[in-house]
Amino acid sequence: MTTTEPADSPPRHTGGRRRRHWASWLGWGLILLAVLLVACVALLARDALAARDALTRALDEVPAAEEALRAGDVDSAEAALDRVQPFTATARASSDGPLWSLAAHLPVYGQDVRAFSAAAATVDDLAAVVLPSLTQALGAVEGDSVTIADGGVDLAPLVDAAPAVARAADVFDDIDARLARVDPTALHQEIAEPYATLVARTDDLRPVVRTANRLTALGPAMLGADGPRRYLLVSLNSAELRAGGGIPGALAVLSVDDGALSLERQASTADVPPFAEPVLPLEPGVEQLFTDRVARYVQDTPLTPDFPTTAELTAAMWEQSQGETVDGVAAIDPVALSYLLEATGGIDVPFGDETVALDAGNVVEVLLSDAYAELEPGEQTDAFFASVASTVLATFLAGAADPGLARDALARGADEHRVLLWSARPDEQARLAGTVVAGDIDTADRAASSVGVFLNDATGGKMGYYLDTDVRLTGSVCTDGGRVDTFSAALTSTAPADAGTSLPWYVTGGGISGVTPGNVRTVVVLYPPRGGEVGTVRVGGAPTGALVAEVGGRRASSLPVELAPGQGTTVSFTVTSTGTQDHPGADGTIDVWTTPTVSTPGLAAVAVAACG
After folding, report:
1. Given a cut of 70, is residue 574 above it in pLDDT?
2. In the chain, what is the straight-line distance between the N-terminal and C-terminal CA atoms, in Å?
């Protein structure tokens, strides 16, 4: 019997047909996906080749731009960048987009893709924004752009360059964020080597961009572009050493309004008498190492090597003794003054009943030696120092200085920690932080890995002129407990054998501090890196005790050393740093801060073991 299915019954074998239907589509889909993948790979390969070719051609031109910038040739730098920018733009466009974003997540080669794309974008940012901005800033400070005449500085070039340099700094933040997304340890060698070279180049440029940004942002404001400013200028005397340079020997108030500078008044340290109590609270370690004199005597504010502390104390003392507030404090020593005289040329100043000709070659000797041998200490020497300072300043402001030489002189002085600057305005001081002029060893991030060897005179005279110093790294090794660095500080007295009788009592101290006339006694203060510690200290090869106190996150050590005329000794010590890959100094370089003396600068970079 034949049965008839209901009309609404579903047809048989539909599931099988559907499976064949989806299988057919799946097959075509896989084929299409494969075609798309091949196409994507082909497109990526095409774009990568285009980007590589463009980058290669760009990099052939970059050295010319860099060389022109180093030489101060603004026109040539701009011309070279004009040639580079089309290539870097092509390289960036050819290594960006959805395909590159997807490929960056592939296994094995994903990081290579990400690094290539990041490199192309970074080179384009450098060529299109960063280097042109630096060129503009260079044009603002090179040659005749910034002029010094009629008692003032033309601020317009710096003001004009500020927006472009600020943009470069912002772009550098983007560069840093982009490079941080690449894992360099996952790169294949073909990509790893050129990528590492690019990162090294950005590391070199970063501080230049930051400095240019600070210069163009801070310079006009601190020079009165937004209203009058008043600064206290402290002349440091290296003949009587202090950790931060020398004893303050003379003071002056400078006023500045829209770039126009003037010497408002001069004073001696006698105009700021001692205070019965510290003018500001001190950290316990600061008082333990340097005593409360650092906050009671203006001559002793540089006992600490941290210039913001010195400057804030000095400003407070000036305000309490003179009833005047200042917008900042600047300091300069005689060696930096000699650099400035290279730009101004020689000057003639009263010297007792006569006149003396000063130039870059003799000013240090005349200020720190001849003046004490031939002038009466006190009013005569104070008047001479004030006359030198005012004459150099007047010559400089009259436009007699060569702008390029003056800029180089100030930069050299700053690099040696002989020119220092502090702003009483917190926002400006925050921008100064970490720069060579800030001298902020207690707080700067860059100073975290620094080692310090500082000198405070304990003779009570002016024997620092006869003290030669030589601080050196003698060993650096990686251990399970961290990196161990060994340093030696050679101290030598160059005083004449008969110094006790041939030199004025004012120079020898006359024994008022319990030091034999002619000898020089120095308190040596050793700073390890933050979080580190000073190991065994030896003087002349023999272990010695030391006063230990914590300052700015460091366990610093302090000990006295006394030398007879012609005598020398060596203070040797080790410091242990618990460095990691992210810790400053892990790249194999640290800064060594020292007291700038007549013969030795106050800052040097040394190579240490790179302990990851």
Report:
1. yes
2. 91
